[in-house]
Protein 1
Amino acid sequence: MKEMTEKVEPLTRKISSFLLVIILVTLILSVSALFLAVDSYLRDNNIVNAGYFMLIGFIGLSLSAYMLLQTRRKPSRVAFEMPHVITTILCQKCGFKNIRDFQKGDFIFKETELCAKCNEKTMIASIYREVKEKEK
Amino acid sequence: MLMIPQVSQLFPGGDNIFSWIIQLIFAALFVAFMFYGQRIQVYIMLRDIESRLRRLKFMRDEGRKLAIETIKEIGKPQKDPTERVDRFLEYIAVIPQNMDPSGIVWKLEHLLDVRDVRFKDEVKLMAPEADEVQLNNLENTLEVAMVLNIIYKVIRHFYILGKKTLSLYIIMQVQMVLPLIMREAKAFASALKAFATGQPIGDGAGALVAAKLMHGHKIRKIAKDIVAATVPLEGRIAHVLKAEGPGGNVGKPGDGIRQIIKEAKGKIATIVMIDAALKLEGEKPGEVAEGVGAAIGGPGVEQFKIEESILKYKIPVNAVIIKQDIGDNVSPMRKEIFDAADTAIQRIKRLILERTKKGDAVIIAGIGNTIGIGQ
């Protein structure tokens, strides 16, 4: 059976031009604010104003960078992990244990192939899923 | 770039035109957030719902695809089953009117029987080559696909409704409940393969306990899809029953218990019911707990029948539950739950030793979907 893969978004994503304009305007304003901060400090030696503009500039810059990164982000692909299911076959006579992957048609208490050791009939004693550490 | 001094004093940054623009933007943003803050919040929430809805759609589509593929593979139909599967996924059941609740249980039981027969007939038509076990598994697979379809459609309904009305309250409710719904949907999505291939699932923990007890003893059919065996256990006569496996099946344990009580003319010392139960967060999967009462889920019909039967003869009923979360409940049985079956058997033995006398007859009912579990 094929493994299920979750395609959350289509592979090619169109970026809205309106969003791009917003990002561009924010970017220009942020750079202007930074310029003003430097200008205010150098020309008037006004630290309060300079700090104020610098704060605005950096907030604007990070906001536009974040928005840009969001639009450039690759569509996420999350896979539904198919659990690893194990079948244990047990020989009723000699207790020989055979562990293998689950196969279609397996069920608990099903009589299966002959024992590799004593040639007696064996039985499926357990079918269970292995849980990875991170799932716990 | 100079400004009118009186105006420029209103803004920090002095008479600079850039500072003026920035201040104006900030003022505009402030006003916009004051008036449109809630609307912006609504749009953010809608976007969140939309992305999750896309995932739900994917799960729904995968469920449908897997069901069709499995039907084609197992059932070998002459015609393409897609149309029939699509019709099946939209199937509805109208629950009985409850204005006068007297007798509603029997009405509901009848309705569930009709639904069950209809489902089985539909699956038989879809997969004419499938045997009884495969038919049961296919029915379960289709039911899971149906659940995924319903989840998707309900969330889509509220999403569109929220989008149309822009009601914060509709959107907020959906967004708040979505993480839990996503969890359930993911559990059902992972259950698809288990049902399609006939793997035992967590819900079958009760059936597994009964199967372990009755294995090697004479099995007889006592009610619809229910098998039983008489097993000597700790000097008592244990009537062990479970749904008939290994196909996906829950049977009618209520009818089974009633039949055994009837055969024993009410002389049953105690009943022990074993079922899988949802654990609370923080509890370990596979933990075994015990108590009293009829441990059985579902729409309530079987529980009602069991309670009616035990009341007539005043039979004490004990419950042994094996804890697991919703994900484990419908996905392939995890090792902890498989191992818990032996712990549950020890508890049952101790319980009947303490609560009954030597030679007494007891009923041990393993409840749950017996997919992948024989007897």
Protein 2
Amino acid sequence: MTALLDIEGLRVDMRGGAQILDGVSITVAPGQIMGVVGESGCGKSTLLRAMLGILPRGATARGRVMFEGRDILPDQAAQARGRIGFVPQDPYLSLNPTFRAGDQIFEIMRRHATGTRADHRAKLLDLLRAVQLPDPEAALRKYPHEFSGGQRQRLLIAAALSCDPSLVVADEPTTALDVTTQREILGLLREIARARGLSMLFVTHDFGVLASLCDAVTVLYAGRVAEAGPTRAILDAPTHPYTRLLLACHPDRAVELAGIPGTVPPATAQPSGCRFHPRCPQAEAHCADAVPPLLAITEGRSLACAHPEPALV
Amino acid sequence: MTALRHLMRDPVAAFGLLIVVFAVFVATFAHWLAPFPDDAFESNIMQRLRPPSAEFLFGTDNLGRDIFSRVILGTRSALLVALAVVLAAMLIGVPVGLIAGWRDGWLSEGLMRFTDVFLAVPQLILALALGQLLAPGIFTAMVALALTYWPFFARTVFAETRRLRGALFVDALAGIGAHPARILVLHVLPNAAPAVLVRATIGMGFTILTAAILGFLGVGATPPTPDWGLAVSEARQHLPDAWWFATFPGLAILLLVLGFNLLGDGLRDAADPRLRRSRH
């Protein structure tokens, strides 16, 4: 099975020396929903923005992002436009406040979708109904600020799907919403992905979301992949100390709510060797010297740690 | 359009708009509306300082000119001066704000500190100094006013550009290769437009007032131009006997400045729902 998306050795450097991503590799198969987890500041959003060619100014990406058999990184994702849908984290300033919501989406469709304007309109109305936005006809004529947060998020999901993408990239699309809306939107995404055979790359820091939505998980720490594998396997038997500590922070899974001492290191001052070693309870002297390579441990699972929990490997 | 409807529902702002529209009308048709349009430059010394009557509604001045006509004729210069000053200030301030807001580092810092310096210059003093340095006259006064008013536009536009610079739609535009100038002018500037419009409206009133002060101080309009500030200044020597000489040009200044300020306040409320006053 060839991968739909194959990110290999993706590096993102900021002007001034900060390194946001250091050799991240992620593979998404057709129809697969891949989750990316990690604390804030681990480079999750940067990963998505790098592959979409919308990095903030001053950031440069290197590596390979193979999408449908082509490297889309060098030409700023131009070839992939319309084939990848993006659902942003903060729906507030994703649309220009001075233009009508409908016009902004039609503009994308005119560029990337086939058919006439009437086709586009009919299709967008169908999508708006699918994401359960009330009164789709009126919604097209509204300005972005006239929607509530949940409505805006639904609108952007519809926009992401408007050009029939094969991959949807979502950056914590539900964190800004309340729990009930969150549940609805996640259900909606899962349903749409299954119905259309979409692949998804889904960034989140919520294991609950992960467990209910994703087929596979990649755990990111300080710009590197710590561990990757099928969701069930990772959640049931995490091997990287970071994953275990992260899971222990989740209220559903922990008897007593734990935390991880310390914080994610700033991108300007990454520790040597394994980047998790200053916070790792199992760290030994050599952890600070050598970067642990990302190695396959079992079928579909990989791990970057010098001394994983032996019982679990 | 929703903003305009909102504005019309606000009686105070609607009143301001009415005054401004009326002033524009008067200025446009001044030569037809004024009963003695030639009194702009001619004098009739025989009928000097006549009190208000049916023939001279606002009375006559020290050179026997009809004050009613001169107030009407003065509307045009007051509006033109204000418009020119505000446009010139926008022409300097808006690009400075856009560039300083978009860029980082020394250019941005330099532009904003430069703006702060001009913000600190006292308007009247600069106008008086320029008037002494160059020839005192309405053009010098306009230059001084524009030079001291542009920082307000720069700061307004700067704040909005900074707010939107990191917005996803801006990154997306940059991602598909849109030139910064295109992003700034077509996508960021429309977001700042309401704030700029409010600033401009309040600036109009402000400029009319300051221009009148400069006229009064003798570094604005020069005789025999029909100018409100100048008229008040000339009337000083004839107070309190010829009270009408100073009163009517003064009232004209008051009314037009009031109109622009009320309109500006109303526009601000209409443009920014958070500041909307509740009226019952």
